[in-house]
Amino acid sequence: MSSIPGYNDSLVSHQTFVLIGIPGMQEKNSWVAFPLFVLYALTLLGNITILYVIKIDQSLHEPMYFFLCLLACSDLGLCISTMPTMLGVYWFDSREISLNGCISQMFFIHIFQEMDSGILVSMAYDRFLAIRDPLRYRIRLPNSVIAKIAIAIFCRSLLVCFPFPFLIKRLPFCRSNVLSHSYCLHPDIMKLACFGAKVNILYGLVIVMSTLGLDVVIILISYILILKTVLSIASHQERLKALNTCVSHICAILIFYVPMIGLSVVHRFGKQLSPIVHMLMANIYIAVPPLLNPVVYSVKTHVKTQQIRQRIYKTLRFKKTGADIFIK
Question: Contact, 252 vs 290, CB < 8 A?
């Protein structure tokens, strides 16, 4: 730490941080606790149900659903990474977190967010192949290729996020130790450093541009090619059918990127807004996408996702019937 130019050894670097619930109204945190608990419970239930249904139904063992499994696993990881501190802050008013605990949470949050972005890119490619070459779609995306894509997504996320803990550990924290949210993010932690955060800022900008920014470009290009392919289809009904298979994926993209952009805009240009707005945007950004992805892929009415919905219904009906027989 003392190797940082200009660092005064007499300064004491914070080893704990304070998480924030409702800014300025900590006594009202309990109002958010129960809705937040319900949200997390529904998130866990929804994603685990998706994984279970796809696992037991052989008809769903297709590339689209394997990518959906990857998305559900990533969303579960993000949910589990944030749930302890968020529920701790709002329910038990447990707002203090150690430096190492905060860095660990930050690391996993950013890994799972990177994975979500990579999986959405893979799903865009999947939709492109399904529409462009439906007869060879399954042949071009065998299980071995999907496994390699999953490994590549994980490795990219790990390599991108690996420097974050070391970049944070090198910083001295001698000012405020109060974070902006009820969980730890790299931008939120580094802004509390006394100095030396320029490397963190530069690395964070490079990562955003080279991963999330590049992912958005690839998704846009994929959908341009998809539209080009759809417009070449003679039948109007077949065009609508082809586009309808992309609706769930488009919703998942919006669910992931819109809260992220919204939170960035609020942080940059909304300093005059109520702290409650910042709190709501932060919670929506981290908690809502994992909740809505299973809903989008289960409720959407085109034939593919109807299979998931019907299988969930059959599973629940079978369990209910079995329970009734057991009671009788």
Answer: no
pTM to 2 decimals?
0.86
Q: Beta partners for 16?
A: 98
DSSP characters over 154-210 = HHHHHHHHTHHHHHHHTS---S--B-SSSS--HHHHHTTSSS--HHHHHHHHHHIII
| CA 288 to mean position of chain CA atoms | 9
Tell whether the model's pLDDT for residue 253 goes beyond 80. Answer: yes
Residue 153, pLDDT > 70, answer yes
The overall longest dimension of the chain from CA atoms, in Å, is 77
Q: Which tens digit of pLDDT belongs to each residue from 59-118?
A: 788 898 899 999 999 999 999 999 989 999 888 888 899 999 999 999 999 999 999 999
Spell out the SS3 assignment of 164-178.
HHHHHHCCCCCCCCE
Cα dihedral 104, 106, 111, 112, rounded to 10, equals 110
Cα pseudo-dihedral 167, 172, 175, 178, rounded to 10: 40
Count of beta carbons in the 10 Å neighbourhood of residue 28:
12
Q: Within 10 Å of residue 50's Cβ, how many Cβ atoms?
A: 25
Cα separation, 263 vs 242, in Å, equals: 33
Cα–Cα separations (whole angstroms), residue 151 to 80, 193, 208: 21, 35, 21
Alpha carbons within 13 A on the beta-carbon side of 219:
23
Burial-class residue 5 by CB neighbours within 10 Å (0-12, 13-18, 19+): exposed
Domains defined for the chain, CATH in brackets: 29-159+219-327 (1.20.1070.10)
